[in-house]
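so my prof wants the structure for this chain in the tokens format not the other one, which i didnt know existed until like an hour ago. anyway here's the sequence
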Amino acid sequence: MNLTDHFSLAELTASETAARRGIDNTPSAAIIKNLTRIAQLLERVRVLLGSKPILVSSGYRAPALNEAVGGSKTSAHMQGLAADFICPGFGTPLAICKRLDSLGLEFDQLIQEGTWVHIGLAAEGQKPRRQVLTAKFSAGGTTYGSGL
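here's what i got, hopefully its the right format
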């Protein structure tokens, strides 16, 4: 099922971890509605990045899958409101974040995660925070600093 021209439901729910561990990652109708919003945002991102293909590594995560991959207990992925991606044809995750931040794109969170970009939306009816963060990795875990 295609959600938009370039993004399918299968792409935004695919997970090797879920397949390997037998975790059901099937979204509800409400989650599919949110995934459609994320797919629409990714379409706008794709255009802003010169219409280069975007490769999604993580979209929706059922709570059990989110726990299995060590996601935040409040992760927007569990609501179908976030996607992690790269766009090799455009450039590095940092270059992508700088471009998206500079153009005033509406989002709740934009995180430069080192080797990928995380983008998230606010729940329907909520004002987006337009929070721009950079992940910092250490032996003690991941922390997030404001800005790029």
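also thought this was worth mentioning. The chain has five helices and six strands.
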